[in-house]
Amino acid sequence: MTDSNNQQIPSEQPTTVRPVAQATNPYASTRGSITSKQLPTFDEAIINKYNRSGPRYTSYPTALEFSEIPDGLETQILQNREVNAPISLYFHIPFCRHLCYYCACNKIITKKNSDSGDYLEYLFSEIKHKRSLLSTPEGRKNPLVKQLHLGGGTPTFLSDEEMVQLWEFLGTQFDFLPENEGDYSIEIDPRELGDNTLKTLRGLGFNRVSLGVQDLDETVQIAVNRVHSAELIENVLNEARGLGFHSINLDLIYGLPHQTLATFEKTVARIIEMSPDRLSVFNYAHLPERFKAQRQIKEKDLPSPSEKLKMLGNTIDTLTQAGYQYIGIDHFAKPDDELAIAQREGHLHRNFQGYTIMGDCDLLAFGVSAISQIANSNTRYILQNHTDLQVYQDRINAARSNPSVMPAVKYIKTSIKDRLREYVIMNLLCHDYIDFKDVNQKFGIDAITYFIEEIEQLGEMQKDKLIDMDAAGIRVLPKGRLLGRNVAMVFDEYLDKKHKNRFSKVI
């Protein structure tokens, strides 16, 4: 590349190397081992320069573009779904027994065991209704499911018996890949596990678990109302590993009240000793005006923005030195984990479940606030159920006597232009690269001409060595890997002034 004075700019080693031997997939890389060439570079000055609010791109367009869904459209979408497309199932369980003060979700805090049983009945009705609208692939009894995830809330609010009941009912509605081929996961609050819960889950076919930890320092835990011992976390992790779960993820949050550089370093070091397969390290965004639970947190107890950045930088250094591969947007994985392998092989995807290895699936979601993503030819529909539990239940009740009533109340219909920009954004976030030739072939355009304005906007990032651009494509460099969302945001046509205050900062 050259600057405006035609002076040659020294090239920096990109984060992924594009091997000639895999020309059919330009997003595959040779990042088979962790080396300094591939590690993200933490530069506080650069992060401060570019750190602005932006979406997490679990979809494009983002959920801010939802509009009211016309009557009958959800039924048509399900009936016209590509019959041979595999399915990823998501179930939202909104209940928790404890209120965590950092929470930014719409959860229902209750200790009433009857709530989960009542909620299951509504889930079963929704599942049966939607399944009745799906065509069955030839040679199968039911549509094929390759992936399943239970989120919330706390999915293990369901009793072991209720979990078995849900799984057995799903077996009457769908065909599942064997557990050694499919991806079946659940989020867990380690404090709420029964003596046989993990054994029950593994016996059903769950092969991946995610444990909410957040921090191991007792002072921090008390401040956010989530107290547990490191020994509890380690015991749960070891039990899951002994039962043969394929992958175990732990969630951490930096920026919580009373966290310091020293205490969070101690937490990270202790977590590394436990050796989870994946780690999610999230940034705490303090927005008490939007999230009622966060009003319990005193702003004076929060670390400063500078301290938070140092926590992030230290955590990245510590995890990568320990051998974890930086996947992107808060996520790390061991090099032999399926997520890391998918990234190196150029098959990583992103949707409302975050990074995923099952990008060929339609996402069919159930429960209050659940979001589905269903593709049909050049169009993708994004559908959301109502976020209020009572309204969701009222719609399910109404559907029992009037099948034309469906649970989704909002939708987005993507255009081919949206699909093009989604493809660019997701490959930048998953593979640190966009290949112009690949885009030209898939979408019948000249990418350089089509995106000339965006390419010009990226000029400053190129000067700062966040990216490198040439006639082949755009590569995110080590210095830019933590700011991949900023690169992606350049290609977002919807990111205008009316949305800028709706997001938290990138870091």
Question: Could you characterize the architecture of this molecule?
Answer:
Helix 4 (160-173) runs parallel beside helix 5 (197-204). The chain has 17 helices and 21 strands. The longest helix is centred in the first third of the chain and has 21 residues, at 113-133. The protein has helices spanning 44-50, 73-79, 113-133, 160-173, 197-204, 218-224, 230-242, 261-274, 305-321, 338-344, 389-401, 416-431, 436-443, 447-450, 452-457, 459-463, 484-489; strands at residues 67-68, 87-93, 95-96, 108-109, 144-152, 175-176, 183-188, 208-214, 247-254, 278-283, 325-328, 331-333, 349-351, 354-356, 362-366, 371-376, 379-385, 408-413, 433-435, 467-469, 473-476. With 507 residues, it is α/β, with parallel strands linked by helices. Strands 2, 5, 6, 7, 8, 9, 10, 11, 12 and 15 form a ten-stranded mixed sheet that branches. It is globular and about 60 Å long. A hairpin with a 3-residue loop joins strand 20 and strand 21 (473-476). Among the domains are: 20-61 and 417-502, Arc Repressor Mutant, subunit A, CATH 1.10.10.920; 207-322, 2-Layer Sandwich (Transcription Regulator spoIIAA); 371-415, no CATH class.
